[in-house]
Amino acid sequence: MTKNNARQFAMTLLYRVLVEGGYSNIVLNSFFSFKAQKSINRELVSRLFYGVLERKLTLDHIISQYSKVRKIQNQVRIILEMAIYELLYMKSQDYAVVNEYVGLAKISKNKSASGFVNAVLREFIRKGKHFSIPSEKDDRVKYLSIMSSCSEWIVKSLIEDYGFDIAQNFLKNQLEKSVVAIRVNPKRTTQVELMRELEEEGIKTKTCQLPNCLLVEGGNAAETRSFSKGFFHIQDISSQLCAQVASFFNPRRVLDVCAAPGGKTLTIAQETSAEIVACDALPKRVELIRQNAKRLGIDCVRGIVFDARDEFGESFDLVLCDVPCSGFGVVGRKPEIKYKKQEDIKKLTDIQKKILYSSSKSVKSGGYLIYSTCTLRKAENERVVNEFLANNHEFELCDVPKFVRKYFPNAENMLTMIDGKINCDGFFLSVLRRKDKID
Length: 439
Description:
The protein starts with a helix and ends in a 5-residue tail after the last strand. The chain folds into four domains: 3-126, N-utilizing Substance Protein B Homolog, Chain A, CATH 1.10.940.10; 140-173, no CATH class; 180-234, Alpha-Beta Plaits; 237-434, Vaccinia Virus protein VP39 (Rossmann fold), CATH 3.40.50. Helices cover 44% and strands 15% of the residues. Helix 5 packs parallel to helix 7 (113-126). The chain has helices at 3-18, 24-32, 42-54, 56-66, 74-90, 94-106, 113-126, 140-148, 152-162, 164-173, 191-200, 225-228, 237-248, 263-271, 283-295, 348-360, 382-391, and strands spanning 180-184, 204-207, 213-218, 232-234, 253-256, 275-280, 301-305, 316-322, 363-373, 395-398, 414-417, 427-434. The strands form two sheets. Strands 5, 6, 7, 8, 9, 10, 11 and 12 form an eight-stranded mixed β-sheet that branches. The chain has a four-stranded antiparallel β-sheet with strand order 2-3-1-4, covered by helices on one side.
């Protein structure tokens, strides 16, 4: 296979995400799962695929300065985005990029586009790959939107919630390569033994501040013997920290109402001796929880198909309520989230409030309720919790465990993982306690 084949595949995958609405991780993983495609330059496909997704608004801004055509066909736009990404961020040779993408345009459905692609790219190169951006002083939202390739309404929301400097630092960090974190399964191995075995399989890792957490520096850890033997599961640092907070309270019975694919459930099971009920509304996702638990040798988890908006009807020491959210904390892993429309997430807070309220019914007297999201919007985080507390006086807000302050020194009773001493996805959690009944 030639590089052009890899570019053609990358174009097809980008079309599935940007035009057809697919999820980046699912689209790419499905593509790589076919054995017939193992001979393709996967590194080039992945870099172009995620590179364009990460910087789409920046690339479109550049295209608008070099094209008089305002309504560009989707496939042609993707070809231009890929080409400009290569020219700016991959330092490919100019003439080679032009030839490759003009050729790609010729074999696309719109054969007449090759001349247009050629003209835009050559003009961009002729002018030294220069492009202008709005001044930070004149329009901070527009400036940060284009520099970080993030929708303006999201940028504005982050600035309103955290200030310009924190918003800019977070969005800048999301353009860097995301770190893959894995959680060591202490029931089957140790951190030292796992590092040694993974190294023998060609996977380099390094330690992390969190106990039983390793960072993967190279290679696909999910394709190793160690993974198949259940020595670890893949889980971001923020999710591991959330599970450690839950484990801190040493619950005997735990309900995880939105558990799939089961990362937090599995970590709690490894940290405690709790009986855990893990729920999801979709049978396929519940089966994924069961498969992951079986692979790790965990038999204390019971997977159940259940809609978290309903009341479960049992009593638990701890209920983990990790609700569906806008996902703005994980844009480094799923960059297409940066282009969500504001109207697409308007109904989320109603769902979150309903799940939190229903879940609270399963918390026994003196028990704990953890509300968490992988977003940074205060409208989905603090405001949801505060509204719940205002209407449910039998619950009180607790400080997060003191060990969390090693990673987030300013952590109090609501923790937003955006500006701490540890590099992780953006995340929010709060701990609520049902007050003891007075006889």
